Amino acid sequence: MGMGMEKGMTAYEAARERTVEENKRKMEALNLRHLSAAIAVAPKTPSPMKQKRRRIIEAAVVAPSPPRRSRRLANLPEVKYAEVAPDGAERMKRSPRKAIDSIYLATRGSISMEARLEAARKAEELESQLDPEFPSFVKPMLHSHVVRGFWLGLPRHFCETYLPKHDAIVTLLDEKDEQFDTNYLAYKNGLSGGWAGFALDHGLLDGDATVFQLVKPTTFKVHIIRATVDDGNEVTK
After folding, report:
1. Which of 131, 134, 218, 224 has the fewest Cβ atoms surrounding its Cβ within 10 A?
2. Is residue 211 part of a domain?
3. What is the pLDDT of residue 27?
4. Which regions of the protein are recorded as binding DNA?
């Protein structure tokens, strides 16, 4: 680069231009431009070390062996066990599925909060009169306990303290000592299958209160307190 080109440049720009020109002269002297161009257009050949070996797997052909037969039956003709229906035979028809009986859903008149609290108060009073040797708790009935869902959750602390740590059959005794088996789900702390039968058989309704008394490791005595509707009449069955 001549001195004329350095006019109008700063000292830094002039030094940079001189460095670029010097590098160009060195590259021309070493013929680097032509070498890089030749490498760029040269065909690429794969390395033999990177080539994957193809594994040829021959399919094994196994000739089917004849069925094993005893010497006593070797000369007898082969028996074919094919199910052939006799001529004119008709297939058996399945009997139509019976319609599922509708589940009785207990209903009552309107129930006030005062009636619910009164039933719970009577249940707590009854519990206080029971033998303290047998643990117990009060359980007010809700809609999900006695209608369709029929899932009865039990107090967690009571379950963890007194009931089995695994699923078990828990028996419910009514006031006439009639037994009803239910499925106790330990991981959910509640009664599932069998509870619906007890609730429907005893006409439990939303708002009633119950007292569960554990008389045996997996047996409850159940006392029922009926709630009253707004007209003052107690629902009985």
Report:
1. 131
2. yes
3. 78
4. 137-228
β-sheet bridge partners, residue 173: 179, 221
Q: Which of 68 and 123 is assigned the larger pLDDT?
A: 123
203: left (phi over 0), alpha (psi -120 to 50) or beta: left
Would residue 62 count as lying in a domain? no
- Tokens 């991981």 sit at which residue? 187
Convert 152-166 to b/e letters by CB count within 10 Å (16 or more is b).
bebeeebbeebbeee
Token pair recorded at residue 80: 């074919």
pLDDT, residue 13, reads: 85
Average pLDDT score over the chain: 76
Number of H helices and number of E strands within the chain?
A: 6, 7
Total domains in the fold of the chain: 2
CB 138 within 8 A of CB 211: yes
Say which range, 51-65, 148-162, 173-187, has the weakest mean pLDDT. Answer: 51-65
Domain that residue 24 falls in:
1-34
Q: Can you read off the two tokens belonging to residue 168?
A: 């078990």
Cβ proximity of 134 and 213 under 8 Å:
yes
**C-alpha distances in angstroms, 58 versus 55, 61?**
10, 9
3-state helix, strand, coil in the chain (%, to 5): 30, 15, 55
